[in-house]
Amino acid sequence: MLELPQKTVIGSAHSKLILVGEHAVVYGEPAIALPFPEIEVKATVDQVDGPIQINSSFYYGLLSDMPDKLEGLAICIKKTCKELDQDATGFRIQIESSIPIGRGLGSSAAIAIAIVRSLYAYYEHDLSRNDLMKLVDIAETYAHGSPSGIDMAAASSEVPIWFEKDKEIEHVYINKPFHLVVADTGRIGDTHAAVASIKEQYKVDFTETKLSIAHLGKLTTQARTALHDGDHSLLGMLLNRAQDELSKLGVSDEGIDRLTKVARKSGALGAKLTGGGRGGCIIALAKSIKHAKEIADDLLHAGADQTWYFTVGE
Ligand code: MEV
């Protein structure tokens, strides 16, 4: 019997980093985010008989049996089929990801982006950025509560972005390439809880919380100027100040504080948490790529779970 060739299609998405402005971005302040292409998600779709199957390290089984905590992703997949005018049946999605989950690196957004892209490719439909954002937002709202949208915007962008809620995304001009280290505390952060805790603080101390959020917005604006001018010393100082403000807001923790101190002791121009905080990752600004490697080594010796270093803006 003649076997028809199996159709297999791949969609992918990379990780993201927030340089500065996380949390404040939820309240309408700007934030700067970067694509982090070193780690990524690949979603492979192929044909199977019967109901949709999901094959990944975090879930293996039928879409219809997905646990509650993955409900957003399940709804996103069904909604994507509906948008494509296809029955939600007859395919398998295999997900391979090198992005550690829950570390503020945008894994949930990247997984949803890769899946939506792979399904559109499988059914040979063009995918507009608007449609992609609309579908991924379904999964992100379940994962993060009330996301600003910055994670999915950065995980689907090839260039550094200036992000303000409900505004057009702008590209950030980088005059002089800079060198970043990312270090994973090894502990899963809970962005949902961290965002909720700041919301709670607004109720307890409105004035102080508003001042902190506004200060983070101001630091982000100054960071854009520093990037524009290629002033890395100023950028480092601004990152340190942002970390102080995020600590004041209660979204840093002992593990993050320890790694930021190690990075600064190794000569980093600045270091702060990235993403939701309370676990997750830190970023540190190095003076050169060689220096970035030295900082990364020191962070590993100090107990970081994993590190990466790379140049932005080349
Ligand atoms: C999470 O990567 C960034 C936060 O600002 C939440 C959000 O903007 O949705 C903490």
What molecules are bound to this protein?
Answer: (R)-mevalonate
- In total, the number of strands is 11
Content-based structural category: alpha+beta
CATH class of the largest domain: Alpha Beta
**What is the residue-averaged pLDDT?**
96
- Could you say how many structural domains there are in total? 2
How many H/I helical runs? Answer: 9
What would the keywords be for this entry?
Alpha-Beta Plaits; about 325 residues; binds (R)-mevalonate; Ribosomal Protein S5, domain 2; globular; seven-stranded mixed beta sheet; 2 domains; alpha+beta; four-stranded antiparallel beta sheet; 11 strands; 9 helices
Structure description:
It is a single chain. The protein is of the alpha+beta class. It is built from 9 helices and 11 strands. The strands form 2 sheets. Strands 1, 2, 3, 4, 5, 6 and 7 form a 7-stranded mixed beta sheet that branches. (R)-mevalonate binds next to helix 4 and helix 5.
